[in-house]
C-alpha cells in the first residue's frame, strides 16, 4: 500500500507543475531554484518504475514529501524553503539508489553464502567417504 501512496504523490506533484510556474512569476523564487525543484521532481518521478521502488520505498516517500514542501514554498514565493526541500529531495533520490544497490548486493551475498554452505557440506560428505548421493 505504501508504494501506491508514493506513486500517487509523485503523480500529484507532476500534475501540479503549472502551479509552480505561476508561483514563480508572482513570488520571490529564483529561476535557478525553480529549475532545481523541477529536476528533483523529475528524478523522483523516474524512480517509480525502478528497483528503488521495491528496495527503498520509504526514502522515495520522504523525497515525495520534501517535493510537496518545495512546491508549497513555490506557491508562497519562499525561495529558501523551496531550495532546501528540493535539495533534500534530490539527495534522497541518491540515497534511494544507493540503498537499492546495497540491498540488491545483500540479497546476492546471502544467496552466495547459502550456496557456499551447501557446497562445503557436500565436500565434507565426499571427504568423509560417504560419497555423493545421486
Instruction: Output the number of helix runs.
Output: 6
Q: Tell me, rounded to a whole number, the average pLDDT.
A: 85
Order of helix and strand elements from N to C terminus = HHHHHH
Distance between the termini: 46 Å
Basic shape: rod-shaped
Let me know the number of strands: 0
Class by alpha and beta content: mainly alpha
The profile of the biggest β sheet is: none
Instruction: Compute the CA-based radius of gyration.
Output: 23 Å
Helix content class: over 70%
Low-pLDDT segments, ≥5 res: 11-15, 18-26
Strand content: under 5%
Written description of the protein model:
The protein is an all-alpha fold and 134 residues long. It has six helices and no strands. The protein has helices at residues 2-15, 17-26, 31-46, 52-55, 57-76, 79-127. Residues 11-15 and 18-26 have low confidence and may be disordered.
Mind sketching the topology for me?
Layout: H1 2-15, H2 17-26, H3 31-46, H4 52-55, H5 57-76, H6 79-127
Keywords:
mainly alpha; 6 helices; 134 residues
Short description:
With 134 residues, this protein is mainly alpha-helical. Helices cover 84% and strands 0% of the residues.
Amino acid at each position: 500500500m505504501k508504494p501506491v501512496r508514493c506513486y500517487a504523490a509523485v503523480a500529484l506533484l507532476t500534475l501540479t507543475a503549472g502551479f509552480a510556474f505561476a508561483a514563480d512569476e508572482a513570488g520571490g523564487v529564483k529561476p535557478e531554484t525553480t529549475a532545481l525543484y523541477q529536476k528533483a521532481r523529475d528524478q523522483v518521478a523516474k524512480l517509480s518504475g525502478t528497483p528503488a521502488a521495491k528496495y527503498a520505498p520509504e526514502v522515495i516517500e520522504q523525497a515525495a514529501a520534501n517535493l510537496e514542501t518545495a512546491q508549497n514554498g513555490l506557491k508562497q514565493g519562499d525561495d529558501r524553503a523551496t531550495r532546501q526541500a528540493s535539495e533534500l529531495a534530490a539527495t534522497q533520490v541518491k540515497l534511494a539508489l544507493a540503498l537499492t544497490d546495497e540491498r540488491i548486493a545483500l540479497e546476492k551475498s546471502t544467496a552466495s553464502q547459502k550456496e557456499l554452505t551447501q557446497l562445503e557440506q557436500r565436500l565434507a560428505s565426499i571427504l568423509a567417504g560417504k560419497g555423493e548421493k545421486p
